[in-house]
Design a protein that fits this description.
The complex is a heterodimer. By secondary structure, chain A is α/β, with parallel strands linked by helices. Chain A has twelve helices and eight strands. The relative contact order of chain A is 0.11. Chain B is α/β, with parallel strands linked by helices. Chain B has a single domain, classed as Cobalamin-binding domain (Rossmann fold, 3-Layer(aba) Sandwich), CATH 3.40.50.280. The chains are: A alpha/beta, B alpha/beta. Chains A and B meet through α2, β3 and β4 of A and α1, β2 and α2 of B. Bound molecules: guanosine-5'-diphosphate and magnesium ion.
Chain lengths: ~325, ~130
């Protein structure tokens, strides 16, 4: 493990890949690893890209990679696709669009399935970002499918969030879920070669203009990712947003919030897992469930009994 | 809690432009509970191996219909070994004559070779059984 971390810090791609697998599998050495790399994180700027399936996110990432690489930056990509609820398997096809970069040593692409996280951005994704950060990436692009929880989750992790839409046929922007308008730092209307793009752009702009006094007014950028049109504008808007966050102090604030959340989550995770470990050693839980179901016991006093049976909250000092 | 998943790269090296077979296999593997990375058409051996490395897969499945299997498969195996990925299981599917299949397996290049007559179930079972 120590050796894998050393190799990661030296820039060994295989070590990076291995370590991502380790966090993804919730390996029991995971925290040891995350602890070891933590001092080496905090450099990477994280950009989230979300939107409906087929909106063109992967094609946009492909073109963005080209533009950003021209500035000499080193980039990590994490492409998240949903796990099939029927088989627990997944098809991860985002790389199809990114093949031109397969042999660029400064680009590292990893596909991840959502696994247990119910469509949300899994804990493993956040941890994989840490690995790529410690690996030395300047920028990490995270592509997630904008359904369910992930579109909201991405904001908590990304410094800049891009929402990708397409020209809508009928009633368009009005029908967008309320949440999605709130999370974007930047709107991309991709497939601008299709009819209806002007209207979509105007509608988004109108919605944005209804809000005053916002610290940051998202840009709305039409793109044709298959022809590489509008991509430079996306990149300069990302840089402007970053500049805004840095100069206004909002980046530092957001990162502090993130640290707070990470620490809280970690404490809760440890409490939960240690608690159940201990309780399962002492009790046959199945029996307790049965008794509760038969109304011989109730869940409320049983929960207190379980808690009191551990020396969990007794340790003072 | 998450558990370990078999990760498979399904790749199409070489020039032929038909990936229906590869997609059907990819879906079957997904339905068997595996995570399948599909990287599309026209992959060079270098691209296949670099993708396998970054994705840290246990299995690489090559779909080859072009007839170039006797050069592509040994080359990809060699690149895997050069990148210390000796333990990655390499399987091949496609229109491959029996004697070529035998030579690829005997030479240690491929773990198994499947031809259009083989059922999807057989392919899934072969891969799963390697990780029990
Ligand atoms: N007409 C048009 N099609 C596009 C454009 N960008 C992507 N596509 C197509 O939309 C489909 C989905 O693209 P993909 O990047 O995989 O979308 P994702 O699911 O959001 O990652 C593909 O068939 C692309 O070729 C565009 O600008 N115009
Ligand atoms: Mg995609």
């Amino acid at each position: 493990m120590q050796q894998l971390v050393e190799e990661l810090l030296k820039g060994n791609r295989r070590a990076a890949a291995r370590l991502i697998t380790l966090v993804e599998n919730d390996d029991r050495r995971k925290f040891e690893l995350l602890q070891a790399i933590y001092p080496h994180t905090g450099h990477a700027y994280v950009v989230g890209i979300t939107g409906a399936p087929g909106a063109g996110k992967s094609s946009l990432v492909d073109r963005l990679l080209q533009v950003i690489r021209a500035e000499g930056l080193s980039i990590g990509v994490i492409a998240v696709d949903p796990t099939s609820p029927f088989s627990d398997g997944a098809i991860l096809g985002d790389r199809i669009r990114m093949q031109d970069h397969a042999l660029d040593r400064e680009i590292f692409i990893r596909s991840m399935a959502t696994r247990g996280s119910l469509g949300g951005l899994s804990r493993a994704t956040k941890e994989a970002i840490q690995v790529l950060d410690a690996f030395g990436k300047d920028l990490v692009l995270v592509e997630t499918v904008g359904v369910g929880q992930s579109e909201v989750d991405i904001v908590k992790t990304a410094d800049t969030t891009i929402v990708v839409l397409t020209p809508a046929g009928g009633d368009s922007v009005q029908t967008l879920k309320a949440g999605i308008m709130e999370i974007a730092d930047l709107f991309v209307v991709n497939k601008a070669d299709l009819p209806g793009v002007d209207r979509t752009v105007t509608e988004i702009n109108m919605m944005l203009d209804m809000k005053n006094d916002v610290p940051w007014r998202p840009a709305v950028i039409p793109t044709v990712s298959i022809r590489g049109e509008g991509i430079e504008k996306i990149w300069s808007s990302i840089k402007e947003h970053r500049h805004h966050l840095e100069t206004s102090g909002r980046l530092a604030e957001a990162r502090l919030r993130r640290v707070k959340r990470e620490l809280t989550e970690q404490v809760e995770y440890l409490v939960k897992s240690r608690f159940w470990e201990e309780v399962k050693e002492k009790f046959f839980l199945g029996e307790i469930f049965e008794k509760i179901a038969r109304r011989e016991k109730d869940p409320y006093s049983s929960a207190c009994e379980l808690l009191d049976s551990t020396n969990f909250f007794e340790r003072k000092s | 809690m998450n558990r370990r998943k078999i990760r498979v790269l399904v790749a199409k090296p070489g020039l032929d432009g038909h990936d229906r077979g590869a997609r059907v296999v990819a879906r079957a593997l997904r339905d068997a509970g595996m995570e399948v990375i599909y990287s599309g058409l026209h992959q060079t051996p270098e691209q296949v191996v670099e993708t396998a490395l970054q994705e840290d897969v246990e299995v690489v499945g090559l779909s080859i219909l072009s007839g170039a299997h006797m050069t592509l498969v040994p080359k990809i195996k060699r690149l895997l070994v050069e990148n210390s990925m000796n333990d990655v299981l390499l399987v091949v599917g496609g229109i491959i004559p029996e004697e070529d299949a035998a030579a690829l397996i005997a030479g240690g290049f491929a773990g198994q070779v499947f031809t259009p007559g083989d059922s999807l179930e057989k392919i899934c079972n072969y891969i799963s059984s390697n990780f029990e």
